[in-house]
Write a structure and sequence with these properties.
single chain; alpha+beta; Cation-dependent Mannose-6-phosphate Receptor, Chain A; five-stranded mixed beta sheet; four-stranded antiparallel beta sheet; 3 helices; binds 2-acetamido-2-deoxy-beta-D-glucopyranose; insulin-like growth factor binding; signaling receptor activity; transmembrane helix; MRH domain-containing protein; transport
Length: 228
């Protein structure tokens, strides 16, 4: 009884507007979410991926792929115009499986065609990179080859709407060991802070991160001299 009475008396003025505000914020958020993640060729995101030459490996067939997504990217060993260079690790012979000039970007898939006919198929040799939104720059992962189409998957902040996870600076974060196995180090990247490391000097907190600029760290005052 008492509760009902209080609600009737106080709710309309004090809680009502807050509830309404909260509800409209939620609606706005869900409206933004519903637009699918997609690539944007004219946006600044390409600059990050274009700055590097990327590598992926097909362990089963012993093929190493080198990817050059843009004209401005470093060349592969297959030559200037080649976007996807497949090197047979047994023979060390390289073959173009995608040309920079024959690219097509549609939504989240970036295709690179070639002019070589696929034996036993009507299609040409080509590569297809499927992007998904991710928290780091990510790395291309080889998926499969089917009918001369070389498929890759790439989870990257570059494919996110509204630059959701875009850092100030990030660099490719994977290594190949001596056996040619690829190790993705992106799970080690700290998103919001850095790693607090031991330091002989007790008066400072030393933070480090790998492959990415340090995020915000709440206990550090930017205007003090304890920022590294
Ligand atoms: C792509 O991004 C640019 C800059 O961020 C923006 O001006 C443009 O409208 C976007 N295009 C599409 C198709 O989303
Ligand atoms: C790589 O070259 C070897 C030797 O010529 C060949 O047997 C093998 O099929 C080639 N691998 C691929 C994936 O084409
Ligand atoms: C690839 O290029 C060939 C001609 O070189 C063309 O016939 C074919 O339709 C292209 N494929 C795609 C998927 O763009
Ligand atoms: C198709 O077959 C020919 C002759 O066997 C060979 O020279 C060529 O490299 C093959 N092309 C592809 C894309 O495998």
């Amino acid at each position: 009884m008492g509760i009902t009475c209080r609600l009737n008396h106080f709710a309309p003025r004090s809680i009502g507007p807050t509830l309404l505000l909260g509800l409209s914020t939620m609606l706005l958020l869900s409206a933004r979410r519903s637009s699918a993640d997609g690539l944007n060729d004219s946006g600044p995101w390409t600059r990050d991926l274009c700055s590097y030459k990327w590598e992926a490996i097909d362990q089963h067939n012993k093929v190493k792929y080198t990817l050059k997504l843009c004209e401005s990217s470093p060349d592969t060993t297959c030559g200037v115009g080649v976007a996807v260079c497949a090197v047979n690790l047994t023979t060390q012979k390289g073959q173009s499986v995608g040309e920079v000039s024959l690219q097509k970007l549609s939504d989240t898939v970036w295709d690179f065609n070639t002019t070589s006919q696929c034996n036993g198929s009507t299609t040409n040799v080509q590569s297809s990179i499927s992007f998904q939104c991710g928290k780091t720059m990510g790395t291309p992962e080889f998926v499969t080859v089917s009918q001369c189409v070389h498929y890759f998957e790439w989870r990257s902040y570059a494919a996110c709407k509204n630059q959701k996870f875009k850092p100030a600076k990030e660099v490719p974060c994977y290594v190949f060991d001596t056996d040619g196995h690829k190790h993705d180090l992106t799970p080690l990247i700290k998103m919001t802070t850095g790693y607090l490391v031991e330091d002989a000097d007790n008066s400072v907190d030393l933070y480090i991160n790998i492959c990415r600029s340090l995020g915000r760290y709440p206990n550090v005052q930017p205007d003090r001299d304890n920022v590294v």
